[in-house]
Amino acid sequence: MKVLMFGWEFPPHISGGLGTACYGLTKGLASLKNTEVLFVVPKAFGDEDQSLIQLIGANKTAIAQKEFLFNETGTKIDYLEVNSEVIPYVTEEEFWTLKNQTTYKKARFIKTDEGFNVDFSGGYGPNLIGEIKNYAVVADIIARENDFDIIHAHDWLAYPAGIAAKRASGKPLVIHVHATDFDRSGGNVNPTVYAIEREGMEIADKIIAVSNFTRQTIIEKYNIPPEKIVTVYNAVEPQTNKHNLNIKKGVNEKLVTFLGRITMQKGPEYFIEAAHLVLKKKDNVRFVMAGSGDKMAEMVERVAHLGMADKFHFTGFLEGEDVNQMFQMTDVFVMPSVSEPFGIVPLEAMQADVPVIISNQSGVSEILKHAIKIDFWDTYAMADAIYGLLTYPALSGFLKKSGKKEVGGLKWHHSAKRVQEIYENLLNV
Amino acid sequence: MKTICLFFEVHQPFRHRKYRFFDIGNDHYYYDDYANETIMRKIAEKSYLPTNRVLLKLAKELNGNFKVAFSLSGVAMEQFELYAPEVIDSFKELTRTGCVEFLSETYSHSLASLKDKTVFEEQVRLHDQKIFELFGQKPKVFKNTEMIYSDDIGAQVCQMGYQGMLTEGARHILGWKSPNFLYVNARNPRLKVLMRNFKLSDDISFRFSNNNWSEYPLTAEKFTGWLKKLDSNEEVVNLFLSYESFGERQPKESGIFEFLERWAQLVAEDNSLKFATPSQIIKELQPVSVVSVPNPISWADEERDLTAWLGNEMQKEAFENLYELRRRMASCTDPKLIRDWNYLQISDHFYYMSTKFFSSGEAHSYYNPFESPYEAFINYMNVLSDFKIRLNAVTPENEKEQEVAALHKLLASKEQKIKKMEAELQRLQKPKTRQKKTTKKRKA
């Protein structure tokens, strides 16, 4: 069966867990028999790993230019013509050359009075809502031009695209909820985003949630019937041993790390309070907050206010190899998320032999046994767990060993199998 | 004639409160009084008291034909005194009927037998003393914590003056042999060994109210029938149960108390069955063979080994850390420290750290105050850290330091001696270099 999948980002151009999860899942699906994935992103850079899947950039799709009519709300009401010149490509190179030629020649329509831009940024810029709508327009065309059996859209940015494709093709739509706006906003949802999410969930034929935690949110906050939602846990790519023995800590002190966006969702302030408690009692330890986000300034101020700036460090946003280096220096990893649909980072930490402390308010806590679980608000418990891991070597030793083993069993292959089952059930009905 | 040996283990631990690292060095009280009291009251009312009532009734009705043995851990007795003194009274009343034998065990329901002879002996001594104070009996038969037994432990128990010991009739130990005979220790045949019939014991304590069990419902008649159907050569059936099986694990509503009463009456009436206490059995029966247990066994889990307490690195680390203190504790006379030392040894603390049952955590979740073994470990180590600080204040840091201190003293006195002699030598003559050299060496 062929799956038309809509995402927003794809490695190596990612900003968070979404791209990683999409990549893992598609790879897992590609390794299964009878499943082929056609993955669409708003912007294809060309350096993505396409060994296992076909990747289509919406920015590279030829779109006919005639008339697109939109009403005030921006909903497409009529679609008149698509370009019939989508080229049946043979080799990859040929495809790109041909595509590029046609696209740029004919892509002008988007610069018409509607104010659209076909050159998607693929990011999360100010014109996000506009881009999402454009993405849906292009999705419609892609759906008409390609042959597939099922549609799968990842997260709200791609729901409109998925809906458009469903309307165009009549094929069943699966939406994959990696997060809801309740996670991102801490309850103050953006009504536009909520509307898009809810529309996607209602139109979808099946919803995949990344944890029971998220599934519950979908049931309670979006009023979706429980039987429509299935939980499929994320997994983690097996890490080839990337240990670089040259990495050494500059100081002979223990390192406790927070790694993630510094936003309300991730609970950075609780980490700081816990750090403060630990530092009162223990001297040879340092804390690192790696990441960036809208709460960063506030956090820096709080650290200064508590008078522990000499022991608490901010690294800014880390990527790729820097993350691995960070893990290699880390003695304890903490994820104090307030609301975390899944949370792949602790799994990566465990792969790197780092014992982890995670909040009960994370999806990943539903599947992990060999991690210390605390409530994000319980900074005393968090501090106690940090202290325990730093002080009692038997504990960290045991967690490292059993954690690595446990995380080794979380394979995308298994998650993909579950997703495939969902496809099959949908298609048989 | 088959003898039925009915034995109950009674134990409740002193559970630790959430002891955070901030408390280390600041707060020296480790116990969750609220939880301990609530749990003790609950179990006393649901299990200990009603079961004692049934046994008392049986003892009076059956005129000495009913016999039962108990082992009460010292910490359980302490908790009775604190939270449920009527349980002690009801045990006393039961004892006065003359149908009860108290067995010896470790005071803290501890794992000391696996680590240190002296600590173990002290634990047993404390326990027997408490039993004597409360019930006026001097135990002659020993039952180790959780039925832990090995040839070595048995030999030591024999040396301590006990005539017999109870343990699990583990399948991997007995093989084709039956637990329904009296055995002797492999290293010292003077110690008799009673092996638990786990099948029949667990039928009551675990399966009684399980309606998925093919034998459900278990009636007193059926159970007595099973006992009578056993091979006629077999001499003793050892039913060793934890006392909470009655009323707690098997709730009152399941009819467990009625079962117990009716079954005991049936046994007493029957000509081919009778009750006896372990001491009587040891006196009356001839041992059939040696039982060889090179590695320690227990009555826990499917494996019948020690992995529930000492299975993972955390448990071993905590255990080693605790007993590292034993030599310094030997010279400690502070009653508060001794009390905490006893409570720290309670085996349940190690049980809570087990990672064995992540999947089927049922058995381990029984009144377990911790959400995860990691939390249990951190908490215990925090308590132990504080305890160490207190102990350091009383006795010097460690033996090494003690030794170093002693050596320092010695060195100083020698140095003085040398100086004296040097002065003397100088005064007397010149050839003194050689002597000086040797003294230097000594100094180094």
Automatic annotation (TrEMBL), chain A:
SUPFAM superfamilies: UDP-Glycosyltransferase/glycogen phosphorylase. InterPro entries: Glyco_trans_1, Glyco_trans_4-like_N. Keywords: Transferase. Pfam families: Glyco_transf_4 (PF13439), Glycos_transf_1 (PF00534). GO terms for molecular function: glycosyltransferase activity. Gene3D superfamilies: Glycogen Phosphorylase B. Residues 142-239 form the Glycosyltransferase subfamily 4-like N-terminal domain. Residues 249-372 form the Glycosyl transferase family domain. CDD domains: GT4_PimA-like. One of its GO terms (biological process) is lipopolysaccharide biosynthetic process. It comes from the Bacteria. This is Glycosyltransferase involved in cell wall bisynthesis. It comes from Mariniphaga anaerophila.
UniProtKB/TrEMBL annotation, chain B:
Residues 6-294 form the Glycoside hydrolase family 57 N-terminal domain. SUPFAM superfamilies: Glycoside hydrolase/deacetylase. Residues 429-444 have a biased composition (Basic residues). Keywords: Carbohydrate metabolism. One of its GO terms (molecular function) is catalytic activity. Residues 422-444 are annotated as: Disordered. One of its GO terms (biological process) is carbohydrate metabolic process. PANTHER family: ALPHA-AMYLASE-RELATED, ALPHA-AMYLASE-RELATED-RELATED. Belongs to the glycosyl hydrolase 57 family. This is Alpha-amylase. It comes from Mariniphaga anaerophila. The lineage of its organism: Bacteria, Pseudomonadati, Bacteroidota, Bacteroidia, Marinilabiliales.
